[in-house]
Amino acid sequence: MLKSNLQPFVPIIIKIINKSISTGVTPDTLKHAVLNPLIKKQSLNPDELKNYRPVANIKFLSKLIEKRMVNNISTHMLKFNLGDEFQPAYCASQSTETALLKV
User: Fold this and answer.
1) pTM over cut 0.70
2) DSSP, res 31
3) Rounded to an integer, what distance in angstroms lies between the CA atom of residue 95 and that of residue 99?
């Protein structure tokens, strides 16, 4: 339902994302998240706080800005060969395991 009604908002969303990137400012309303505790495994004791991890539910637009920034940074790093072969963050088909295999 959301996808079918999203089209009229796309130009506005793109304008907000581009403005945020060009100014380096994220609107204050997008800087808030709701933190929810999520139990790590169902088999763990739910009475112990150490068995939970925090999960942040951020706003849809914040996630879009984040994804666009990751894409921009990754593209820039690839274009100018700035990546470290032992730093797999933001690299497709890379993991800590593949980095360890290169050592």
Assistant:
1) no
2) S
3) 6
Q: Rounded to the nearest 10 degrees, how much is the dihedral formed by the CA atoms of 10, 69, 83, 87?
A: -110
Contact (Cβ atoms closer than 8 angstroms) between residue 88 and residue 96: yes
Q: Rounded to whole angstroms, how far apart are CA atoms 47 and 36?
A: 16
Strand 52-58, strand 33-39: pairing: antiparallel
> Look-up: residue for tokens 């593949």?
98
Longest dimension (CA), the chain: 50
Give residue 46's pLDDT. 95
Query: 86-96: per-residue pLDDT in tens?
Result: 666 656 667 76
* Beta carbons of 57 and 36 less than 8 angstroms apart: yes
